[in-house]
Amino acid sequence: MKSVLAKSFLYLSVFLLLAACKQESKVLSLEEEAREKIETLKSLMEDAQSKSIDVTREETIIWFSEQFLKFANWDEANPEAIAMAFGYERYYADNKDSLAAKLPDFERQKVIQILDKGIETLNQELAGDIKRRPVNKVDWQNTKAGNNMFVSNGKPSFPYDYFSKTVGQPLTNKDIYNDHLGALYHGGENLYPVDHDRAINSFLLKEDGTFDEELMKELTGIPDTNIGFLIYWSMGIPEWVEKKEPEIRKGRSLFTGFDIDNPVARDLWGKIIRRTGELTKGKKVTELGYIFANEPHWYSEKNHWTYRFKEMNGISSYTLNNFRNWLKNKYNNNIQKLNANWDSSFKSFNGVEIEIPIDTALQGKPIWYDWNRYHMDRSTSWFKFMQDELHAVNPDANTHIKLFPRTFYEDSRSHGMDFEALTELTTMIGHDAKALGSPSIRPHINSDWYKNYAYKWDGMAILHDFLESVGPDKINVNSESHFLSSGMWRDLDSRTSYVRNVYWLATLMGMDANMGWFWARDPDGSPEDRLEGELDFFDPGLGGAYAGSNNMQPHITNEVTQVMYDLNSFSEEIVALRKQPRPLRLFYSETSAINTSDYMTQTGKLYKSLFFEGLSLGFVTKNIIEKQDNSTWNTVVVYKTKYITDAEFNALQSYLNNGGTVIIDSEESLSMNEYGKKRSNKLTAGKGKLMEMKNVDMAEIKKVALEEVADYMPDVIIESNNGKDYKTTISRVVKQEDGTYLVNLLNVGHDTAKIRLSLKSGTPVTIHDLMTENPVDAEFDLASEEVLLLKVK
C-alpha cells in the first residue's frame, strides 16, 4: 500500500512538474505581452496617484499602446491595403509585400518598447530615484495668443497637433482630438483640386456672385470650443472663372492654381476673404491665425523641377504689364537707361519683353536681377492684398504664411519669395520648417551632412534665426512640421532620441506651435478616406506619405507627445533661454542672394561654424538696421556679399556712424551694386569699428568675430569634446533672478561628447538635472542626441 501511494505521489509530482514546464514554455503573443505590460503600468499608476505623483505621461503611453495594438490588428487583417500604401512610396515599392507582412508585429514590438520604458521610469519615481515636474497641459479651449507667445493658465504654452488630420472625422471625436494627438481645430488642407473639406477656397463663390452656403457650413460649423487655425487653400479655380478669364491659370504655381496678378482672381478672392473673415471673426479656431498660403513659390527659372507641375510655364499679360510698370518706375521712365543696362533696344516700356522661365545663364545680369526683384515684389503685393482684405473686416486677425524653408536656405532666388518682407507683413511668423532624421531616401539629394551630424538640423536652425531676427516680437507657428518624415526622407524605425532633440531644438529657437506631418489613421486603424483605394493626387508627395510615417511608429508618435509635455512643463525656462540677445549678426542681402549662385551655401557654412559657440546667432538687413534697436547686437559680419544696393550700403554706413562694429571678409564684399557696377565709395568707421579682412579664410573670420563678442559670452563655461575637429554640442545659458543659471545642452553629433561646466569666476558649482532633480557632476558625458536642462548654482 505504501509503495502504491509512493508511486502515485511520484506520478502526480511528475505530472505537476510537466504541467508547470508546459505552462512556462507557453509563449505569449506580442499582443498578450503588451496587454500584460499595460496592466502592470496601470497598477503602478494607481500606486503613483495614491502618492500624488502625476501620471499624465503614462496616460499617454497607455493610450498610444492601445491605439497601436488596434492599428496592428487592422494592418494584419488588411495586408493588401498596407502593401498598396508601401507601393505608393518608390523607396519601399519593391518590398511592399514583405513590409506589409512585418508591420503588425513591428508595431506591437514598439508598443512593448514604450511600455517597458514607461514602467521603468515610473518605478524610478516611485522609488524616489527621480522626481519629474508635473505636466502643464495645453488648455485647448482657452489658450490665447499673447505677447510673443501663446499663453495657457498664465504660463507660456506650446500647442502641438498634426496637420491634415483624418478628413471626414468630426472635430469633436476624442479619438482624434485629445491631449495625446493634440486638439487644434482647423480649416483643413484641401489636397484634392475639387475637394472642399473645411478649407477656405475659391469654390465658395458661385458664378452669380452668391456664396455656396453648403460649403460655407464646413467653415462656420467648426465648434467654437477649441483653439485652432484656418487656411486659405488656393490650389483650385472654378470652371466658370476659367471660362470668364482664359489667362487665369497662366503663371500658376504648384499650390496656387491661378495667376495672382489676374484682376478676376483678385476680385474672387477679395470677396471670399472678406466674407469668411466676417463669419469667423473672434472665433477660437482663428487663435493660431489665418494661413494665407501653403508653401508658396513661383520658380521661374529654366529646368527647375517645378516646371513639370505646370509652375510658371509662362506669364500672363497682366504679369508682363505689371513688370513693365515696375521697370518704368525703377528706371524713372528712362527707356534708354534700361536698354543700356539690359543691352536691349526697346522703344518704350510698353514694348519690353522677357522670356519666362528665365535662363539661369543670365544670373548676375541686370535683366536677371530686375525680373527676380520684381517677382518678389509682386508676390508680396498679393499677400498684402490678402491681408488688407481680411483686416478690412477683421482688423485683429492674426496672419501668417506657410513659408517653404527651401526657398530661403537653398541658393535659387527665382521663386519670388522675399522672406523678410513677408515676415514683416504678417502678424505672426509662419513656415513649415523641416529636418532630416536620416540620410535622404532620394539618391539625387546630397546627404554629406550625415558624416558629421546625427540629423540635418541646419536648415531648420538658420530659418528660425533669420525669421526671429526679422520678427523678434512675433509668435512663431510651424503649420506643417516635417520633423518626422517628408518626401526627402523617412525611416520606419526612427530614433526617439532624434524626435526629442529636434522638437526641443526647434522650440528653443522660437517655435511656439507646431502641426506635424501627418496623422492619417481613422479611429478603427484604417487609413483616412483620402488614402484608401487607388490614389491619384496632384501633390507629388501625398500618395506615398503614409508609408514609413509616424502612423506606423507608436514609439515615435508617443515621443512627440512626451517631449511636448516636457517642453510645456518647462515652458518658462525655455522662453527665458530663447529671449537672450543676439550680439553677433550676419549681414543678409537679398541683392546678393539674387545675383550669386552660391550665396546661401556660403552663408550657411559661416552660420554652421558659429552655431556651436554658445550664443544665439542673428541676422541684420537694411530694414533691421533701420527699424530695430541697433543696441540689441554688437557686431555685424559681412561675408561673401558682393552685390548690395546703395540703400543697403547706406544702412551699414549709418550703423557704423552710430558706433557699431562691422567685419568685412574681403575687398570683394560690398563692391558692386545690384547691376554689377563697381561701387566707388567704401565704408568708413565713423564712430564705430570697421575691420576689413584680406586674404583670410573662414576660420579667421570666425576667430575675429568671436573676439568681438567675447564680453557677451555666458558666465557658465561649457567645454565640449566629441573627439572630432568640429563641435556638435548646442548650448544656451541664461542667468536667473536668484543668481542661478539655466543651462540647456543638446548633442546633434553621432558621438558622445565629454562635457565640463565651470564658471568664469572660478567659483565651485553645484548642478542639478531639472528633468529628474538629480545632482550632476561638473564633468559628464552627453550622449548622441541627448537633451539636458540643468540648473547651475
Structural class: alpha/beta
CATH architecture of the largest domain: Alpha-Beta Barrel
Number of domains: 3
Provide a count of the helices. 22
For the record, the CATH class of the largest domain is Alpha Beta
- Give a quick account of the main beta sheet: strands, pairing sense, barrel closure: 5 strands, parallel
* Oligomer type: single chain
Spell out the CATH superfamily of the largest domain.
Glycosidases
**Strand content of the residues, in percent?**
5-15%
Q: The CATH topology of the largest domain, please?
A: TIM Barrel
Q: Calculate the mean pLDDT score and round it.
A: 93
Helix content: 25-40%
Taking all Cα atoms into account, the compactness measure Rg is: 29 Å
Q: Which residues sit in consecutive blocks of at least 5 with pLDDT less than 50?
A: 1-12, 14-25, 190-197
Number of strands: 25
- Principal-axes shape call: globular
Report how far the terminal alpha carbons are from each other. 81 Å
List the defining traits of the structure above.
793 residues, alpha/beta, TIM Barrel, Rossmann fold, Immunoglobulin-like, 3 domains, five-stranded parallel β-sheet, 22 helices, disordered N terminus
Characterise this structure.
It holds the Pfam family Glyco_hydro_42. Residues 1-19 form the signal peptide. InterPro entries: Class_I_gatase-like, GH, Glyco_hydro_42, Glyco_hydro_42_N. This is Glycoside hydrolase family 42. Keywords: Glycosidase, Hydrolase, Signal. The chain is of the alpha/beta class and 793 residues long. It folds into 3 domains: 154-535, Glycosidases (TIM Barrel, Alpha-Beta Barrel), CATH 3.20.20; 584-712, Class I glutamine amidotransferase (GATase) domain (Rossmann fold, 3-Layer(aba) Sandwich); 716-792, Immunoglobulin-like, CATH 2.60.40. The chain has 22 helices and 25 strands. The strands form 6 sheets. Strands 5, 6, 7, 8 and 9 form a 5-stranded parallel sheet that branches. A 5-stranded parallel sheet has the order 14-13-15-16-17, sandwiched between helices. Strands 19-20-25-22-23 form a 5-stranded antiparallel sheet. Helix 8 (263-279) runs parallel beside helix 11 (366-393). The longest helix is centred in the N-terminal third of the chain and has 31 residues, at 96-126. Residues 1-12, 14-25 and 190-197 have low confidence and may be disordered.
